Amino acid sequence: MEKDIVEISKVSADKPEGSGAIETKKVPNLTYPYWKEKRVIYEDLKKEVIDKTKLYVEELKVLNNESNKEILKMEKLILEIEK
């Protein structure tokens, strides 16, 4: 039986004025200069995203106050996702 597989792409696009670092809507002039529709095992992708997010949170703690409520929220969300 094939494991749960998802397709992911790394893209480049024009950044719309007023947009953030992460966008969930379609963006203009989308291109695929890196890779397109790469097939990966969902659990592997999930683990990598969680691990990288934990590293990011640790970096935020160095740059900010460790008790910053937004950082604490992120840590709580990570714990919920890991269950």
In words, what does this structure look like?
- It is a single chain.
- The chain has 2 helices and 2 strands.
- It is α+β, with helices and mostly antiparallel strands.
- The protein has a two-stranded antiparallel sheet with strand order 1-2.
- α1 runs antiparallel to α2.
- The chain is flat.
Considering the chains and any ligands shown, give keywords for the structure:
alpha+beta; two-stranded antiparallel sheet; 2 strands
Brief overview:
The chain is of the alpha+beta class and 83 residues long. The chain has helices at residues 42-63, 69-82; strands at residues 5-12, 31-41.
**Order of helices and strands, N to C?**
EEHH
Helix content: 40-55%
Q: Write down the overall geometry.
A: flat
| Rg over CA atoms | 16 Å
Percentage of residues in DSSP E strands: 15-25%
Q: Got a strand count?
A: 2
Helix count from the secondary structure assignment: 2
Spell out the blueprint of helices and strands.
Blueprint: E1 5-12, E2 31-41, H1 42-63, H2 69-82
